[in-house]
């Protein structure tokens, strides 16, 4: 495109002088539309460029505002989640501490129970061995070796020739504060397991028997005759001629 100049040859003076383009056009009464168009285009371009720049800045401002808003929302949500997790962690930590404390207490209690059971087992073992040693000195009595399970000993009386006679009796020795019904039930189960019709619960002393045991020495349960007695009572009746089992229905 040919570049417009500010001066042209004056057609009126046949080149003897020079006038500016704008002066010639003004004398001819013609506006410089090309110049106006150029200036208008440049102004339009500047206006468009400014508008685009303003719009771009506005868009970036909106973008930054939206980013800031979203970031704040995400941060708030994460902070809330962290607080919730912190509370849960605190609760879980407290529960774990409670469980550990309870476990420690249970271990201590178990150790105490194991110690007590060990003492009871030693006492029971001594009672069983002491009974066997004493019972073997009774006249006319036959006592088996210590049973591995289902009772402590099998006791029977001897005939004049020294042979054991029926009925055989399953012995369970107890040396505890008070004999319980569970002791009776276990003795019955052991007797049934060995097919022995008579089971004898032997307490160390009369005070270890319940009043119901002293009132009713003999009873029958699940086909097994049960005698609740003491070592002294058995010793006093060690003579088979003076001992009679009163089996009542």
CATH class of one domain: Alpha Beta
Straight-line distance between termini: 140 Å
Strand order of the largest sheet: 3-4-5-6-8-7
The percent range for strand residues is 15-25%
Name the shape in a single word. Answer: rod-shaped
Radius of gyration: 59 Å
Largest beta-sheet characterization: 6 strands, mixed
CATH architectural designation of one domain: 3-Layer(aba) Sandwich
Extract low-pLDDT stretches. 240-249
Total number of strands:
8
The amount of helix comes to 40-55%
Could you outline the blueprint of secondary structure elements for this entry?
Blueprint: E1 7-9, E2 18-20, H1 21-27, H2 33-135, E3 141-143, E4 153-158, E5 164-174, H3 181-194, E6 198-203, H4 211-215, E7 218-221, E8 224-230, H5 231-236
Parallel strand pairs: 5-6, 6-8
Antiparallel strand pairs: 1-2, 3-4, 4-5, 7-8
